[in-house]
Amino acid sequence: MRRAFLGEFEELILLIVAACTEDAYGVTIWEQVQEQTGRSITISAVHATLYRLEEKGFLSSQMGGATAERGGRRKRFFSLTVAGSRALIELEQMRQKLWKAIPEGKLQILGQ
Amino acid sequence: MNTKNHPTQPPRWADRLLEWFVSDHLLEDVQGDLYEIYQRRVKLVGIAKAQREYGWNVIRYINPFFRKQKTTHYTQPLISTTMLRNYFIITWRQLLTNKAYSFLNIAGLATGMSVALLIGLWVYHQYSYDRFLPESEQLYQVKRNFDENGDNTLTFNTTSLKLTNVLRSEVPEIEYVAESDWMGSHGLKVGETKLFKNGAVIGRDFLQMFQYPLLEGDPKTALHSAYSIVLTESTAKALFGDENAMGKIVRFDNDNDLKVTGILKDIPSNSSFQFNFLVPFDYYEQTKSWIKQSRTGDFSQNAFQIFVKLKKGVDYNQVLAKIGPIEHTEKDNVNAMRSTVIMQPLQRWHLYSEYINGKDSGGFIEYVRIFSVIGVLVLLIACINFINLTTARSEKRAKEVGIRKSIGSERKQLIAQFLVEAVVFTGIAFVLAFFLSWAILPAFNALTAAHIHIPFANVYFWLITIGCVLITALLAGSRPAFYLSSFQPVKVLKGAIRMGKTASLPRKVLVVAQFSCSIALITGAIVIYQQVQYAKDRPTGYDVNRLLSTSVNGDLRKNHTALKNELLQKGIIESVTTSSSPATDISWHSTPEQWPGKRAGETVELGVIITDNEYFKTMGMAIKDGRNFFSATDTNSVIFNETAIKRLRLENPIGQLITFNEKQYQIAGVVKDALMMSPFTAADPTMFLCTPDVQDEMMYRLSPQIKTQDALQQLTALFTKYNPSYPYTYEFTDVTYAKKFNLEVLIGKLAGIFAGLAIFISCLGLFGLAAYMAEQRTKEVGIRKVLGASVFSLWELLSKDFLALVLIAFVIATPISWYLLNGWLSKYAYHTQISWWVFVLTGLGALGIALVTVSFQAIKAALMNPVKSLRSE
């Protein structure tokens, strides 16, 4: 099966959705990304990435939780799909393997 | 600021932009998130900054990602064969269930398309002139722009032999030069077979320039020996029968024997050159002393035509700059100094034959343009029919559209459905149109005197034709397709859709456009007919009836007196004359050097006719002042026509002296104007000189007592007796004169036919529309009848809308066609006035035809039994 490619930012968003304790939607994810990375990121970039991940099948969404603050509009809550979790796990495993493959000497140079 | 009680709103423009741009399925949560962020920012940084940030945030959503529609989860091939088959099935069923409507639609389209096809072929034929010759783009005719009195440029084809010498030796860009005579008729004789046919005496390189295909002989050498002749296939057959003509001898003008050195394929009809044989120019130079002398003469001996072929890749303008002032070397020759040498490319000869101020700016191309426009208009009228009939029936098909949409048809599928219908209808119409044109073509050819054929083997013809058919289908089908597919299923199925004023307005506009075109075409046809009639009825100034002319050839010159005496004596003719020009032309124009009251440097182009004292009597022209020539020896007298006297500004002309060709003449008389050249312009100023020598054209009027048939029999016998080596040929002047109207008569006929077809197609459409309207209002008519409406009032109710449209069309078409026709008429110096009754007549005619068409349906509806129409619900 062809596996969809995950970009760096996409992986980050996916991890943040996975890590969220409460229901994740646009604003919370946006705040989290900025908090975790310390970078300034536009909300549109976050939205675009979320929708793209949904198209690729890594995320699913459902609508709900309208508030007055939002002018009565519902939020779109994102959650990880099976494919999404599998993609994260595979990435993680590949990283582990690569870390283990680094020779001792080089690790010391890296400061570990 | 208290923000809790009055929650602030983000800027309106940004919201609008977002709502307009971001696709619906994303908008809600995107906008919600943006609002949430905005409210937080208001608390943190204040309203102004938050609003600015909101704006910036929104702008970042303006990218294609947020625009795209929700992706569907099933895939659709670009063209589904199943759907395509379905479209065709539905189309076929539509066609069969509505036979009358389909018939109207297809008949209208087929008529329009065959008109367009015929005109297209005709236009193509006109453009194909001379282009079949290889390297035709390198071929030119050399002409002269003559500066007359400094303000008017006249363009002449006449050139001198000195010019050919100069072009040959001084212009290296020119590959070949061919001098030529004016392609007159000559006698060809083989044994007892005599022909008098049109041919050219032309430069030896001619066949290497104009590469007409040779069946036998070599184009390089065929015209190289002075005593040779090249025949066309049919001339060779006429002279030699089935024998091979090559190498055989033809007696030319009963003077010399020429050897046949080549056989040409017959010259196609779309060639500007039309000849039956070619004789090398060297033959003339060796046998005619005046031509030999011309070779060493100066630039003013303009009596020949010159054709040139440029070398490959040479730029026309570059040569033009070089040859323009080439005659300006003879400083004391006014004629040469005022002449600028120009060239006209072969490809423009046929369509741009008229020179205005030194530029080939007009000619037959104008008629080609007019008919192209007519063709497009008629096709457009046919397309409008299709559009109107299809949209008018939209109410019927609205339910179909509604059901299709609600069970999941997409709009583009519906558009495809309707477009397929249009393509199938136009396709059927085209097949019909094709066979129709094919059947009409011989008649069309006979009418236009052209040899047009359908180029079955030409790939481009098919590509262009099929392209045009598809464009027509799109033109006719696109409006119905987009209109019908835009219906909203909910409204349509609820039955709420009412085709109100807005729906029928475009239809009405189209009907008005249709009838405007038809009315304009009809007025055009009538005015052209009137103009031709007007010019035909114009007094010619001489009597064209029973007047014959024969070219003086062979022994006719020698035996003229004997022949004349015998003809008169036997009472076959009542008078005879010879002249330098035939009765319907003036072949020589020149300017007198001196006359009383001449201004310095002034030139007046006069037609010059050299003849004898019998001329005016034979022609039937009246002497207005003074006298006729005493006798054939009255060589010191000159007679002018009235126009010439006016142009020369002579107060008391009789007895005055003028100088012409270095000789003094006394004005003996003034003759009334006669129309020898164009019947549409004023008479040419003309001077008549007298000579006892026999001239080139013999003109004689038959006696009133003798029957034409008997006269011709006796004439043939006598002419053959006195001129045994030539066949007797003659022309009736009235026939020749009538030929001057050929083009105008043809244009009038064609305009009439196309106008008739245009109104026919328009009426087909109107008939369909009226039928549909009547059908739609069946119930209304039924109720009205029950309540006591009369048939007349019902007829009025159903007809008046349509008649109003025709009236509007009339109001629109009248000023436009008046303007265009006035422009056309003003090109003729002698033209009729457009009278108001033409428009009234056309308007009434169109109204009448429309009335009959509509009434048929209206009365049918009005006579219907209300029980029947109200019974079913």
TrEMBL record, chain A:
Pfam families: PadR
Domain Transcription regulator PadR N-terminal: 21-88
Species whose genome carries this gene: Xanthocytophaga flava
Protein name, UniProt field: PadR family transcriptional regulator
Domain of life: Bacteria
TrEMBL record, chain B:
GO CC annotation terms, alphabetical: plasma membrane
Transmembrane feature ranges: 103-124, 367-389, 414-439, 459-477, 509-529, 750-774, 802-821, 836-859
Membrane-protein topology: Multi-pass membrane protein
Keywords of the record: Cell membrane, Membrane, Transmembrane, Transmembrane helix
Keyword Cell membrane: yes
Domain ABC3 transporter permease C-terminal: residue ranges: 373-477, 753-866
NCBIfam families recorded: perm_prefix_2
Protein name as it appears in the record: ABC transporter permease
